[in-house]
Every structure is written in C-alpha cells, then in structure tokens.
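hey m, so remember when u said the tokens were messed up on ur end? i reran from scratch. heres the input so u can diff it against urs
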Amino acid sequence: MSSQTPPTAKKVPSERVHHGDTVVDDYAWLTVKDDPETIAYLEAENAYTRQATAHLEGLQETIFQEIKGRTLETDLSVPTRKKGWWYYSRTEEGKQYGIQCRVAADGDAPPELKAGEALPGEQVLLDGNELAGDSDFFSLGASSVSPDGTLLAYSVNFTGDERFTLRVKDLTTGELLDDEVSGIFYGGAWSADGRAFFYTTVDDAWRPNQIHRHMIGTSTEEDVLVHQEDDERFWIGVGLTRSERYLVLSAGSKITSEVHILEADNPTGEFRLVRARETGVEYGLDHAGDHFLILHNQNAENFELATAPIDSPADWTPLIEHRADTRLLNVEAFQGYTVVHLRRDGLTGIRVLPEGAEPYEISFPEPIYDVAPSGNPEFVTERLRLGYTSMITPPSVYDYDLRARELILLKRKTVLGGYDPADYEQFREWATAEDGTRVPISIVARKGVERPAPTVLYGYGSYEISIDPSFSVARLSLLDRGFVFAVAHIRGGGEMGRHWYEDGKFQRKKNTFTDFVAAAKHLAAENWSSAIIARGGSAGGLLMGAIANLSPETFAGVVAEVPFVDALNTILDPSLPLTIIEWDEWGDPLHNAEVYEYMKSYTPYENVSGQIYPPILAITSLNDTRVYYHEPAKWVARLREVGRGGPFLLKTEMEAGHGGRSGRYDSWREEAFVLAWILDTAKVEGTARVER
C-alpha cells in the first residue's frame, strides 16, 4: 500500500438546528458541485486512490482480461415477435454499446441468427456506438417503436444526469424527423395510430411530475401538458397496454398509487380516473380484452388480483385472493391467459390462469433461482417468454408453450473459457437475527473450495427491492480464486413478502443492519467464511456505512458504491431531489422529532466514531442525481478525521451517473478495479486459482 498522505478536507463549520438539536457539519461545503475547490478535492482523492492502488494494476488487468475472455463479445439476443417483425439486439467485439435491429417476420418460428452475421434484410434501428460517438458517457432513456412499426422514438443522454433528448426516426426512410424534445425523463408511450407520443418531464427537484403530448411533425412549442402531479410525494409515468387499446398514466408514492386511462386511439381525449388515491393503497392495471386486471393491496398486504369492468374500473372483484405466504408481484394479460409473477419462500415463480381451465404454476429444477416474464409484446400468443437464472446458471431465455405446458430453452448466455456449472454449488442458509427472525442467505462457491474461505457478502435491504439469486461472469474471478459469494436477504427488501419490507423501514430500519451483521456472523460460525468483505450500493451503501459503524470487527473490508451515507442531512432538506418522496421510506425527520432521533442514531455520517474501521472503498459519480457525490466524499473525510484503521479510499467517476460507467468495457474495468481491491484487502494471492 502506498505511503502517500491522503488528502485532508478543510473544515468549514456549518450549523443546523432541528428539534432543539444543534449539529455542526464541517464538510457541508463539499455539496457545492460547481465550486473549483470541490472539484479539486475530488480530483485529489482520485489521485490518492490511484496511487494507493497502483500495486494492483497488474491484477486489475488480469481480471479485466478474464471478464473479457469469458464474454462472447459478438453476440445477439433471442428475437421477439411483434406484429410483422422480429426484434433483437446484438453486440460486436470491440464496441462498447449494443445495436438494436429487426427483420421482417416470415412464419412463427424465430429466425436463426449467428453471431457476427447480419440477416438478409436486417434493419438497424439504433446503433449505440454511433449515437455515443466520442462521448465518455452514453445512455438510452427510451426506445419505442410505434404500433404500426413505422416510427421509432428514442432518447439519449451524454452526462449521466438522467435528463434525455427525444428524437424520432422514420423507419421507412431511415431519416430523422425534425421532432426534438429536450430535458425529458425516462420512457414514454405512443398513441395507437402513431400520431402522438407522450413523455414525462421533471420539476426543479427532478421529480417526474408532468406528462406531455407531442404530435409528430409539430413544434415542441405546441406540445400539450395533459397531466401535472402537484403532490411532491408522487412520481408519474405513462405507458401503453400490451393490447394497445389503452394509455395508462400512473402516479405513485412509496406507499400509494393512482391510475388514469385513455383510449389509445383517441390521443387528444381526456384521461379518466380508475380509482382515487387512498393513502397506503397501491394498485396497477392491465387490459385483458373485455375487462381490466387490477393488482392491489387494499386489505391485502401481499396483494391480490381482481377484475374490473371496462366501463367501471373502480369496481374490483377478487380473482386471486390474498395469501399470507405469497406476494403477488405483477400480472400480464394475454388473449386467453393471465400470467402472474409471484414470490414465495424467498423465491420467484410463475402462475398461469388459462381461460376456462384450472390455474397452475410452472416448476423449475434448481433449489434457488430467479424467473420472470420477459419480452412479451404480443397480446395474442401461444408462447410466454421467460428470463431465468441462478447463481450457477447463466441468464437463460425460455419460451413456455401455453398449450403443451412445456419449457423450450431458446438461449443460454455463453460463458467462454470452459465454464461448467457442474464445477460450482449453490446453497440456501438461514441466519438468526437478534430478535429471532430467520434471515435467508444465498451462497455460491466452487466445488472443493477450502473452507472457511474469504467471502464477499452482498446486501441491499430497502424499497422492497429483492436481490434474487443471479449469475455473474465477473464473479467467477473471485470464485476461481477460492472465494465464497453470498447474498444476505435482509429485511427492508422484499424477498419474504411485503411484511419483510415493512419490518425494515421507518422505525424498524435498524433490522436491516442487524440482519446483515447476523448473516455475516452466521457464515463465520458455520465455517463458511474467514475474511468477509461487505459490498453494497445506493441504499445498500447506507447499509455498508451502518454496519461499518455497528460491527467493524466483523468485516475485513467494505465496498460502498454510490452510497447513501449522508441520509439524515439529505432527508432533512426538502429542496433536494427525491427528499419528500423518500419520507414514505425513512420517515420525515424534518417535522417529526422521533424520526429525527431514530435516523440520527443510525445514519453513517453522523455515527462515525474513534473505533477501528476496516479498509473502506467508496465509489461515486459526479453527475449522480439519486445519491449525490458529496455523501461519500463527506463520509470519507469524517472517517479520516475521526475514525481509526482503514485505509479509506474515495473514487469519483467524473463523467457518469448513478449506474457508473456506461460502456461495457469501461464497466468491466471498473469491476476489475473493485475485485482487485477485494482480493488485496482479503489478503488473497491474486494469481491463486482453484484447480479445475
């Protein structure tokens, strides 16, 4: 490790008073993004991190080449049928971004595609590499073909701040139309006739709060505001049902939903309300021919599925009643079938309701896995497209024949370099939390690995987001060096149903952190783990900061990516993007003294102490609009000032957003950097590989 002295952040005391409590924040000056001193400090931190990890450059390059060498760089997706076209995407060796294509459909069977070979008649819809040009960052916010297949609406961003510019391409001529709308948010929806495109814009707090209608071929000055959401807790968005009969305008807070609908063939009409919002009631809608399907949680914690008449969508009749052991996640309507995505016992599943026949669930062979409907644009179909993966099975695409009731494997992601799933094992363990709650842990390791082994323990635990078992090419670089990889399915996530989420938020948020520590201690006690490196990002970065304060001796290192570590200051400031929305997740410390005291007792920045901390690597992005760069910058500064141990490293991507680097090669290099740091921190010899 380099002996270079780390940067020292200047201290500029800034006082705030809440509920009679005066707090001095010495590093609040780092919140001023356009201050040259702020940029200079971040660049100094980057320089220190580069020097402190310079001895890992060879290992980083080795791991990058391993990731690259296991990846089929020239590859393509399974084509998806929509009307008269097969749509697919492909990648080419040496290029950062994907290419979206289509070919005319000839029969019902997908065309046989070969990597690196364009099909006769292939039409390139979008080439991300051409769009990106020489930009350091590039992302798509929307890519939507009009119902008649003649126009493509897409939006691009080159900074990472999630604000996009909309363009429209004529797919008949290949020419760009004059239509251009700047400053829009993700997504959008076409009218049925392709004359209108509906898009979302944001307010000063970057909250999606307006839906606009753009008529193709007209000036943006003529665009019409069709809906504005004034409640600062709510986001809004717009979509088109699979049947293409209805535009669906959805407004939602963390705990409440409201839906409006409009006949898609009448884009200049007025959206009509489905059912007025009721605090705590969430619902969504899909069109199923002669009725609507409503998935809701009114008096149903884990949600139930109901039907509603077309002319009276507020009248709900139960179709699948609530069950305490099954969380209904989503519903998709097809002609003759209803498909429900669900969760039970910590695993996802698929339930099929054939019209006029008994419902049933599709079975899968592995003990832990993740499955979900994926890419089903046609309302009239006899096949259901599914995405499937596990910790040892690469991402797989299946068609499920709804008549024959059989799974048809269409494609499994190719992993080069002799990867064999039989060389690896996956397990489900259960830790016991402080209050006696059993917490599931998913584990993967190479067969024959000597235990206890160095371990990466990943966690998230917020917003009812589940970190389900999944495959990772990059992870193999750890497993083949004798690591165990584990995911702690902690409260605050959704793995065990809605109650699992409710038991890890508001005044029970600390359960998230103590569950993670319990999982780590279980792995050590059961001889799974020696050195444990904790890893998490965003709200999972809050988790990382909290467990570093709570039980630093349990972890050999901590990786915190875009970490929400200055949560109290952020949630106290309603002028910041997302803050008011977040009050339904964390509570409102601005107006509630009890919430303030509770948050102050666990938020990482406020609770840094003089104890000995493990090495910490914090990674952030300057243009992140969800977790600001200054949160980890302030946290690392305070760790250096108050804490002992470390070292504490901060790495800021100066041209990126919440998701980090955008190009696939850039993201592989970033992952290689993190994995090299993990290997070094766990004191694992970088070239030591488990024998095949």
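this time it looks ok to me. Residues 686-692 have pLDDT under 50 and may be disordered. if urs says something different then somethings off w ur setup not the seq
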